[in-house]
Design goal:
The structure holds two protein chains of two kinds.
Chain A lengths: L2 H9 L4 E8 L2 E8 L6 H11 L7 E6 L5 E4 L2 H10 L3 E8 L12 H11 L15 H4 L10 E4 L9 E6 L9 E12 L2 E13 L4 H5 L7 E5 L2 E2 L5 H10 L3 E7 L45 H13 L2 E4 L5 H9 L16 H6 L1 E2 L6 H7 L3 E2 L1
Chain B lengths: L12 H10 E10 L4 E7 L4 E6 L3 E5 L5 E5 L6 E7 L4 E6 L3 E9 L3 E3 L2 E3 L3 E10 L14 E6 L5 E6 L4 E5 L4 E2 L7 H6 L3 H4 L7 E6 L6 E6 L3 E6 L4 E7 L4 E6 L5 E6 L4 E5 L6 E2 L4 E3 L10 E9 L2 E9 L3 H4 L3 E7 L2 E7 L3 E7 L13 E6 L3 E5 L7 E2 L12 E6 L5 H13 L10 E5 L3 E6 L6 E7 L4 E2 L4 H5 L6 H4 L6 E3 L14 E7 L4 E6 L3 E8 L8 E6 L16 E2 L9 E11 L6 E5 L4 E5 L3 E6 L4 E7 L16 H27 L4 H15 L4 E4 L12 E9 L8 E8 L3 E8 L22 E9 L6 E7 L27 E6 L2 E6 L4 E7 H5 L3 E10 L7 E9 L3 E6 L5 E6 L6 H5 L2 E2 L4 E7 L2 E8 L6 E2 L2 E2 L3 E2 L10 E2 L3 E2 ...
Parallel strand pairs in B: 19-23, 28-38, 42-44
Antiparallel strand pairs in B: 1-64, 2-3, 3-4, 4-5, 6-7, 7-8, 8-11, 9-10, 12-13, 13-14, 14-15, 16-17, 17-18, 18-19, 20-21, 21-22, 22-24, 25-26, 26-27, 27-28, 29-30, 30-31, 31-32, 33-34, 34-35, 35-36, 37-43, 39-40, 40-41, 41-44, 45-46, 46-47, 47-48, 50-51, 51-52, 52-53, 54-55, 55-56, 56-57, 58-59, ...
The chains are: A alpha+beta, B mainly beta.
């Protein structure tokens, strides 16, 4: 959500930015030239020397104009941080072992509240020993991860529903079963009975049940855009399993009363349906804020998800790639980039791996969460 | 909206034309022995043999390579086949009581893939007949056909029925001659009263035409009565009042005698004399295997010989109590008496003998016995009646086939040496070239797959290396069975045939094979984790076998192997005969079945994988290079071995708990409602019923701890760029069941740096092969990795070892970046090298809902353009269809339905050749050969020269073709395998 804001930042052109950095109880204030600052590494060393903490592994974060605490761990987000300063750039330095994962990109509202109250410290109301309870403060991403969405409402018949289930990173099972059945179709020749595939059971506590968007006896019409007509139960099963990382099923709900009617989003006038909130992460009312980036239609989104679910984990051996090791040692071994929302690496894994090619482009940024080198 | 993401490219007419020139799907020929044969016939004039099967197929075999196949519309068993001698026609009787007339029909020349093919003679059904039920007789079985007799003149078909009636059909029109019909009553009237005694004569058991006097037939009834019937006068010439239930009849050549066989295991010889019309007693009556009760003699043949005493051949008749379960056929002449003891049921048999009327004697030359699982031919002219090797119909399945592999373009040198080694094995089974089939009994058989008939070349047994429960030398030679010692003089059994379904030790079973055709190195890997490297030698040798044991668990703790032990070695192995001789044996620990094997003869390396990990072994320096465990820590199942019952135990426990819970619930209910046990039962039944829900499928992504995740599925060696984009070198790739790929950079002394080293020079004696893990790829979807192959800078697969260095193939492009194709069960994906990033992919499962079972990189040549070819990825799915993708773009090209999706063993057995053909097992004993290429097709194109005027099928042109009495050899369509193989 920070992208449009950064554009505004660019417009407010100034030559010098004011930096206020805080490490534990100490503050440092200094200035940076907006145009001649270096990369992230340089900035990192500068801060280490300013705070007299050379060799201490730290995490950098900055407050953007919404008061969001966002991480700085590569050139890209460093530049973003610099460009968004107006004019003050507030840097918060934390020791790495203190709070491993306080950053998140998804909690716009909640973080605003939390940060606003405590003056960018990550403490919530009444927390005296806040430091060691980061999960209470901002919350782990999974606490508010998007698990499902109804998409393409504007193009589907009202009796159909296209549901996307987000499986990434959760340990919840998808939790549903399918069966063969008979579907009744109305044709010009009259009512016709054709074989179909139906949801036969929802597992209690499973992802499918918790979304509330799928129900027993819903007929499955499409799996990730492929019509299931003429496919056997086993084929449909295989298709769903193959797409389980980003499963989009089009169903004809057995209970038609709860159907979504067309939303107001048409007023936004953008090409894609804003209702299909893929990249709008989990802001509660994505439809309302249609900006050109989030209003990417579901196709583009699907494709990018495609990339994500395909990104295979590639580990490389140090001894083969010695030149990279030096490079990566300098980097923080914690992966502080904003992970793509649908991917979360176990901590242990993240700690043992170092990003191989920290995003140089928007494209590779998406993949970063998955391509990891040892 | 979603759909257009997956929309295929629009069709480009030019591309479509190229596709047509490249790809064409044909099922061409079936190799091996017909599954479940049920009928046999022989045409002495055309020298055709026909076999009918239980599935309604008819196959005609002539000279090697001449084959015709016909399939009845209904899959009903063929019970009888009769040739219209010399006409290229045959009649078949099916189990559903229908009679069909088949004809060899000449076809018109046709265009296939732009190439003109000459007309092919094919077998086609032209007529059929169903004997109507007789009005007035309720039982439909009365007109059930029991026997057929086709008169020598080929114009009349006599039909014997269950009801005892004989009917006559005009051939080939298949019309009933009503006035000729002979019902039982007619015969009964002329019977003496004391014989008739009010009982029916029973079904017609046998019909035989008089060998000398046309128009006279013998009719044998089940009860024992035999009638010599004159067709023209419609009068019974003679009656033979047999008392014993009749099984079969046969004439002596002169027509003065006939022999009847009976269900008590005896046979009788009857004299045909014209002076008496009623003959109560046979000339002689014998029960050869008496005096204890014997089984019936199903069929008997009586052949006269020039040398004097007639030759008597009959099946069955064994003493019921002692040998009633044997499948036997007896050959008897004077004092010579042999009981052929087969391993499967005798279906039918015939003799090849002189049929010309002028000859005085039958003088049989050979006996052909069709058994359920094989065809045995006995030489009747050589004393001792030895068996002859057959040129085709070799039982592929003499031991269950576990795996097969195809090697094309075999260098003539290797070919020759294999044939020589095979010849040295004469007397036993011998095996041949391009196809290799692996068997459960630990043998590797080489078959010549270059022609229509799959002929055995050479057989390699791995059993002699190991010590098994029975002495391996016995298991090797099927002719001296341990049973032999127990057997007494009588009956004089002789084991014949090579079908041996029982493996001595299942651990001997062979799972994987890899052959380097240039260095003649062969790697064979088996069920007990044994990996043997063989070298070809023309001399007998008694060298010692090098043995190594490799622990693939790598000190993983918490695992115990509960499967079989590894095989013990023989302390003193016999000298190795010429042929492939074992050089090195590596035994994996735990001794789980080998699931993948790779050989790189140029680097002297073998790689092998089991369900626990994989190993790399340098067989030149005899040292283990690498062992890597692929087990997932949660994977306990892999350790249980193949005999594990853990899963089922878990399941049954769960079920029984469920049942207990259910019964408790119903118990409570009982307390409230009527406390009768019946209600409880009903409740329990209801509860049980709920359990049986309609078929459901759980939708869950594959997780890391699925069982058997560590199984190594594929291994591959490649000279490519793994470290960086400038230095290439030897690499080893391994893929597992859980979507992991391991890539190792190998340090092979001499290799990679100019490829100077061939067999390891002296100066490198101290150097060892080293392996360093380069990359580990975890496919996100975790589907099993089916295949890995490295593509060169042009996107072509790398050549085989030695191919490039010996200028047998164009050298791979090492200047442009290489890529690796990783095919998992769900996706096909090409990654760039050395930085492994996805280039192209095709998500097959997501699109089609099918899973990849087999893939192969195949080169397709254009049928019209001489030098145009394309590398194509052929992919067989679990639905039995073939998907073809271009390389490296992975764009779908064509799709063909190939194997029924229910035919799991067929799909699992499929192998591809490098030029677009393939084989799969249609039955345990038959390979179906298919072709995906429009150019490379191996199929029988046979022509038959007949003396009949061929009525062309009405659909064909009216041109009448004249054939001469001759069977020609098959003409193979252009078979590149063969031609290029012989030029090398």
């Amino acid at each position: 959500m920070s992208r449009p804001q950064s554009r505004i930042g660019i417009k407010l052109h100034q030559h010098v930015i004011e930096v206020k950095s805080k490490f534990e109880a100490e503050y440092r204030r200094f200035a940076l030239k907006r145009n001649s600052h270096g990369g992230f590494q340089e900035f990192y060393h500068l801060l280490q020397s300013l705070h007299l903490i050379p060799g201490v592994e730290v995490l950098l974060g900055y407050a953007d104009i919404h008061g969001d605490l966002l991480p700085i761990n590569n050139d890209d987000n460093f530049h973003k941080a610099v460009s968004s300063a107006n004019p003050l750039l507030r840097i918060i330095i934390t020791k790495k072992e203190d709070e491993p994962e306080v950053f998140g990109t998804n909690s716009l509202q909640r973080r605003k509240k939390g940060l606003g109250l405590t003056g960018l410290r990550t403490a919530t109301i009444g927390s005296t020993h806040s430091r060691h309870k980061p999960s209470l403060l901002i919350g782990q991403p999974q606490d508010f991860r998007q698990i499902s969405s109804i998409i393409d409402v504007d193009i589907l018949p009202e009796s159909h529903r296209r549901v996307r289930l987000h499986k990434h990173g959760t340990h919840k099972p998808l939790g549903f079963y399918i069966r063969d059945g008979v579907s009744v179709r109305v044709t010009p020749q009259g009512v016709e009975k054709v074989p179909g595939v139906f949801i036969s059971r929802l597992v209690r506590g499973g992802l499918a049940e918790t979304t509330g968007l799928l129900g027993v006896n819903d007929e499955i019409l499409e799996v990730n855009g492929i019509d299931v007509v003429g496919k056997s139960l086993d084929q449909v099963t295989d298709m769903m399993v193959a797409n389980s990382h980003n499963l989009i099923v089009t169903v004809k709900p057995s209970n038609q009363r709860n159907n979504v009617t067309h939303r107001v989003t048409k007023s936004s006038g953008s090409v894609g349906s804003a209702g299909s909130s893929g990249s709008a992460r989990d802001s509660p009312s994505p439809a309302a804020q249609s900006n050109p980036i989030t209003a990417s239609n579901s196709i583009a989104e699907g494709d990018s998800e495609d990339e994500e679910d395909d990104c295979d984990l590639i580990m490389e051996n140090d001894s083969l790639l010695t030149h990279q090791v030096i490079n990566s040692n300098l980097r923080d071994s914690h992966d502080l980039r904003p992970l793509p929302q649908s991917i979360s690496l176990p901590n242990s894994m993240a700690a043992s791996m170092i990003s191989n090619h920290n995003g140089n482009s928007e494209e590779s940024l998406r993949e970063d969460g998955n391509i990891i080198s040892l | 909206m979603m759909k257009f993401r997956f929309r295929r490219q629009g069709t480009d007419p030019q591309r479509e034309k190229i596709k047509q020139e490249l790809f064409a799907f044909n099922k061409t020929v079936e190799h091996g022995f017909p599954h479940q044969p049920s009928a046999l016939a022989y045409d002495p004039k055309l020298q055709f043999m026909a076999i009918g099967t239980k599935s309604g197929a008819i196959k005609i075999y002539g000279a090697p390579g001449v084959e015709f196949t016909g399939l009845h519309k209904d899959t009903t068993a063929v019970t009888q086949i009769h040739f219209l001698s010399g006409q290229g026609r045959l009649l078949s009787l099916l189990d559903d009581n229908t009679i069909h007339l088949w004809e060899l029909v000449g076809g018109n020349p046709k265009e296939v893939g732009g190439v003109r093919r000459e007309g092919v003679v094919s077998l086609q059904e032209v007529n059929s007949y169903n004997l109507p039920g007789r009005p007035g007789i309720e039982s439909c079985s009365a007109t059930r056909v029991t026997v057929l007799l086709l008169l020598k003149s080929c114009d009349l078909l006599c039909i014997g029925t269950e009801g005892g009636g004989a009917y006559f059909l005009e051939v080939p029109r298949l019309s009933l001659k009503d006035n000729q019909t002979l019902l039982q009553d007619e015969i009964s009237q002329s019977l003496p009263d004391e014989y008739r005694c009010g009982k029916a004569l029973g079904p017609v058991e046998s019909l035989q035409e008089h060998p000398q006097q046309a128009g006279k037939i013998l009719i044998g009834y089940s009860r024992g009565l035999v009638v010599l019937w004159d067709l023209s006068t419609r009068h019974a010439d003679q009656l033979f009042l047999g008392k014993q239930q009749l099984e079969s009849l046969v004439w002596e050549r002169s027509g003065n005698l006939f022999v009847s066989s009976h269900n008590d295991g005896g046979y009788s010889v009857w004299a045909v004399t014209s002076d008496q019309s009623c003959n109560p007693l046979p000339v002689s009556s014998t029960i050869p295997y008496g005096p204890f009760p014997c089984k019936a003699i199903n069929k008997i043949l009586w052949r006269t010989t020039q040398s004097g005493s007639p030759l008597l051949l009959y099946s069955g008749g064994m003493p019921r109590a002692t040998y009633g379960d044997r499948h036997c056929l007896t050959i008897q002449q004077d004092k010579d008496h042999i009981t052929l003891d087969f391993t499967s049921r005798v279906i039918d048999f015939f003799t090849v003998h002189s049929v010309e009327q002028e000859k005085e004697f039958d003088d049989p030359s050979a006996l052909v016995v069709l058994l359920e699982e094989e065809l045995v031919v006995i030489d009747l002219q050589t004393p001792g009646w030895p068996s002859l090797p057959t040129p085709y119909l070799a039982p592929l399945h003499s031991s269950a086939i576990t795996c097969s592999c195809h090697i094309s373009n075999v260098p003539p040198k290797l070919w020759e040496r294999l044939i020589n080694a095979g010849k040295a094995q004469q007397g036993r089974q011998h095996a041949h070239r391009v196809g290799g089939s692996l068997h459960e009994d630990g043998t590797v058989r080489f078959w010549d797959a270059s022609g229509v008939a799959l002929t055995p070349l050479y057989k390699l047994s791995t059993a002699n290396v190991f010590h098994t429960d029975c002495d391996p030398s016995d298991s090797q030679d099927l002719n001296d069975d341990p049973d032999m010692q127990q057997e007494e003089e009588w009956p004089p059994f002789k084991k014949v045939g090579c079908f041996d379904p029982y493996s001595d030790d299942p651990r001997l079973g062979i799972q994987k094979i890899s052959l380097c055709k240039y260095s003649n190195k062969l790697v064979v890997a088996g069920t007990a984790g044994q990996v043997i490297v063989f070298g070809l030698s023309d001399e007998r040798s008694d060298h010692l076998l090098d043995v190594s044991v490799m622990d693939l668990l790598q000190d993983r703790e918490g695992f115990t192997w509960k499967g079989h032990d590894r095989l013990d070695l023989r302390l003193k192995p016999p000298p190795f005969p010429p042929g492939f001789q074992p050089l090195v044996l590596v035994q994996c620990m735990p001794p789980a079945s080998v699931t993948a094997v790779a050989l790189h003869a140029e680097w002297n390396l073998i790689a092998f994988g089991t369900s626990h990990g994989f190993g790399l072994f340098d067989y030149h320096r005899r040292n283990a290079v690498l062992a890597r465990c692929t087990l997932h820590p949660n994977d306990s199942l892999a350790m249980e071995g193949p005999l594990s019952r853990v899963k089922s135990l878990k399941k049954s426990l769960r079920q029984s708990f469920r049942r207990i819970r259910k019964s408790r619930v119903s118990g409570k209910k009982r307390a409230i409602s009527t406390p009768t046990s019946k209600v409880q039962e009903a409740n329990a039944a209801l509860a049980e019923h709920e359990d049986v829900a309609p078929v459901q499928r759980r939708i869950e992504p594959r997780s890391a701890d699925d069982s058997l995740s560590g199984v190594v599925r594929c291994l591959c060696f490649a000279d490519t760029f793994l470290r960086d984009g400038t230095h290439h070198g030897p690499t080893l790739w391994a893929g597992t069941n859980s979507g992991s790929v391991y890539a190792y950079a190998l340090e092979v002394p001499g290799a990679g740096s100019g490829r100077m080293c061939e067999r390891g020079g002296v100066n490198e004696a101290g150097m060892c092969v080293e392996a360093v893990l380069g990359k580990e790829i975890q496919l996100m979807h975790r589907a099993p990795v089916v295949s890995i192959s490295v593509l060169d800078g042009q996107g072509k697969p790398l050549p085989d070892p030695y191919e490039a260095s010996q200028d047998l193939a164009s050298a791979p492009d090492m200047t442009n970046a290489h890529s690796v194709l990783i095919a998992s069960e769900e996706q096909l994906k090409v990654f760039s090298l050395p930085k492994v990033s996805a280039k192209t992919k095709f998500k097959l499962t997501a699109h089609e809902g099918c899973r990849v079972r087999k893939v192969a990189l195949v080169i397709f040549s254009s049928a019209t353009q001489e030098d145009y070819n394309e590398h194509t990825l052929v992919c067989l799915t679990n639905l039995g269809d073939m998907h073809l993708f271009n390389m490296p773009g992975l764009r779908p090209q064509v799709r063909y339905d190939c194997i029924r999706k229910e035919d799991i063993s067929g799909i699992a057995s499929c192998v591809f050749t490098k030029t677009g053909q393939g084989f799969y097992l249609v039955s345990p004993s038959e390979y179906e050969r298919f072709s995906l290429s429009a150019k490379v097709i191996t199929e029988p194109l046979c022509s038959v020269l007949l003396d009949r005027l061929l009525d062309c099928k009405p659909t064909n042109s009216s041109a009448v073709k004249k054939y001469k009495l001759h069977t020609s050899l098959p003409r193979l369509s252009e078979d590149r395998e063969r031609t290029s193989g012989s030029t090398m």
